[in-house]
Amino acid sequence: MIVDIRKRILIVGLGLLGGSYAKVLKRFGFHISAITKEQGSIDYAIKENIIDDGSTELDKELIGNADIVIFALYPHVFVEWIEENQSLLKSGALITDVTGVKGSIVYKIQDMLRPDVEFIAAHPMAGREVSGVENSSDKIFIGANYIVTPTEKNTEEAIETCMELGRLLGFSNVTTLSPKEHDEMIGFLSQLTHCIAITLMTCNDKEDMEKFTGDSFRDLTRIARINDLMWSELFVANKQALLEQMNLFMDKFKELKTMLEEEDIDGMRKMMRHSTERRALFDKK
Amino acid sequence: MIVDIRKRILIVGLGLLGGSYAKVLKRFGFHISAITKEQGSIDYAIKENIIDDGSTELDKELIGNADIVIFALYPHVFVEWIEENQSLLKSGALITDVTGVKGSIVYKIQDMLRPDVEFIAAHPMAGREVSGVENSSDKIFIGANYIVTPTEKNTEEAIETCMELGRLLGFSNVTTLSPKEHDEMIGFLSQLTHCIAITLMTCNDKEDMEKFTGDSFRDLTRIARINDLMWSELFVANKQALLEQMNLFMDKFKELKTMLEEEDIDGMRKMMRHSTERRALFDKK
């Protein structure tokens, strides 16, 4: 194991993701601490043996002793935390995150960070429609992607450690992408899909539609039940990349609409065959 | 039981839906015949005891003896069949269908039909991503909707018989809508969702995206694997209603895009809360 088991891990933000990280890593034998807002989350996690200790305060000892710090916070809260509290970090500490956007966060953090602390960014592509440490699970990473987004400022060692963390957590696919590639990919695969789902869900308020709903509509709107605080922040934090994807989608949708207006059956069939062929690539392997 | 068990039922078009109808109705004891293109489908269905007899020809006896005829054909094939062969139907026969669009079909058929034969239209909202009588199943109707779309030309008796057929088939929800209401509803819940799925699947051909795909993207594109022949015809057959739904969707999507451009967090959060609230209505009961 690349990551030394004697290393002390601190999780900042003990929600669904932070709690799930803690659950898995504790099982390997790491000493796990947590800092989070609610005393109830700390109490629950200690009782359930998810963490060893924790605090709702900026406990200098907890922070100063941590070799690896995992930030599971909203993007702007993470940035503020580093701005205000980075002096408390241990010299030589490695910090990482779970933030779903990268370009607007990674460089900002790396630019302001003390030179004796390294930030290596990661995006665990896992989540559920519930939140809180009480819903954390050591199973949510199975089958999921874990993407490390290194920059020129990162050391090989930090990249390797961060990737090993992903493997320890149980992710099925651990890879690296540049922050830009990551944001493009996430803009398309995740953010655009959420934009589409909430649009579909709100564009027609006609009553009684639900009585006739089948699986197609349900599938397309499963993610229309959305955490508005988090997603509006993520959208804005990835504004340019997401706008590009929205434009790609809208242009194609207009093409289809024009073909329908002109009853261009051949054109529609061609698009549908393209769709069918391409969808096969995306089947679960 | 409203429908007399001694009535002879003929299914024209023995594919997935036609075969599934046959499977269930045969179990109740009806005499089931079928007319379909492929001899292999007939042979299979007789061997599996799904039908009593069948033909690939316009067998005058089979057609002339049927009290109830169920057409499970593509829309334009159904219209042509009636145009060319309605003289073969028994006087007093009741005919029904499984067509997924109504306005462009129902009046056309009723207007040209002999006065001694009644057409009552129905849309069984069930299907699978596979086709053919070999894939037929007596389970696909459970939990699904069956919509009868009567017009002024229909008798109470025919409407009741058609609804009873839906209940016998095992549909969980048997209702009536006007052809116009049906087409609006289907334009939104089914056709618009397919338009969105195929657009999403074809708007960005960047390589390697599939490596990072999560459940959201997979859910939104499950129906992007699509029968191009059938759906292009269904889209055109419901052109006006579908174009209206596409416009509603596009206008809302543009609103969201503008809010993102202007970083209007409050506006986006409001839309997301609306989405979340409305999605709750569509949960499976």
Profile the largest sheet of chain A. Answer: 6 strands, parallel
Tally of individual domains of chain A: 2
Q: Biggest interface in this structure?
A: A-B, 83 and 83 residues
Task: Using the coordinates shown, work out and report the CATH topology of the largest domain in chain A.
Answer: Rossmann fold
Oligomer status: homodimer
Structural class by SSE content of chain A: alpha/beta
Helix content of chain A: 40-55%
CATH superfamily of the largest domain in chain A: NAD(P)-binding Rossmann-like Domain
Folded structure, characterized:
The structure is a homodimer of 285-residue chains. Chain A has two domains: 8-177, NAD(P)-binding Rossmann-like Domain (Rossmann fold); 181-281, 6-phosphogluconate dehydrogenase C-terminal fold, CATH 1.10.3660. Chain A has 285 residues and is of the alpha/beta class. Chain A is 50% helix and 12% strand. In chain A, helix 4 (75-85) runs parallel beside helix 5. The first copy, chain A, is built from eleven helices and nine strands. The mean pLDDT of chain A is 95. The interface between A and B is large, with 83 and 83 residues.
Pick out its properties:
homodimer; 285 residues; alpha/beta; Rossmann fold; 6-phosphogluconate dehydrogenase C-terminal fold; 2 domains; six-stranded parallel β-sheet; three-stranded mixed β-sheet; 11 helices; 9 strands; 50% helix
